[in-house]
Specification:
The complex is a heterodimer of chains A (about 100) and B (about 140). Chain A is built from two helices and five strands, in the order αβββββα. With about 100 residues, chain A is α+β, with helices and mostly antiparallel strands. Chain A has one domain. Chain A has a five-stranded antiparallel sheet with strand order 1-2-3-4-5, with no helix packed on it. In chain A, helix 1 packs across helix 2. Chain A is globular. The N and C termini of chain A lie far apart (about 30 Å). In chain B, about 20% of the residues lie in helices and about 25% in strands. Chain B has three helices and six strands; from the N terminus they run ββαβαββαβ. Classes of the chains: A alpha+beta (about 100), B alpha+beta (about 140).
Amino acid sequence: MASASTRLLLTIQTALFIYRQSAVDLSCIPRLSASTVDDGSILFEWISADYRIGFSIEPDPRESSWFLITSENLGSVSASGFLQGVDLNRLTIWLLGFIVAYS
Amino acid sequence: MSLPSNFIRGIPNATFLNEGGSVGAHLFYFDLTSDRDDGWIEQSINWEDDDSTIEFTMQQRKSDGELQFKTGVVVVPKDEIEKLNSRPTIKGLLSFERRELIDNPYHGNLLLRSITSRPTMKLIAAGIALAVERIIQRAE
């Protein structure tokens, strides 16, 4: 799990670098919070008043997942999925793009 | 008996609070291993029947006498749960009930269908956390 978490954080760092190279203002991005959870997982979340975007790194990597949920103000979007088999770079860039657009 | 507009969930400790002053989605995680044999998994809440419910919840103690919710409580509007439960990806997976206990007349449960996948459970938990209206922290 530590390696999966490290991989995720490095992927986020890379995505932020890509946006920074494109001169995107990243000052609006909320702090990424991290929590260890009783079910054995690690939760990473970006939290704003109108959305929550997160990654759950699970003891069983096949169960690790991501989510995006928004308030009515942002269209009541609800999306989630497993991380396994997903291009984490593209997913992270997409999620960060959402944050940049709506923060 | 009709249910009040809001429910309350206790915050067991500070690990559920983030630096920005919000609660982590994991405050609303359901235990997917605890199916209660009717197709639902429950998560304890207290219904905000009156002005004393918050204080009652803050004073709840575990069997060893320790405070159950050391950090405080959150207040969530019931209608936000209904809206969440009407979203296409979540529809019908959530419910709630009143289930009074001998020592807790306010007690109830949020309910989640036991067939819910882990990613969807965590999405729903985040949705409930997004709906939190107030966080009341215990005074230091």
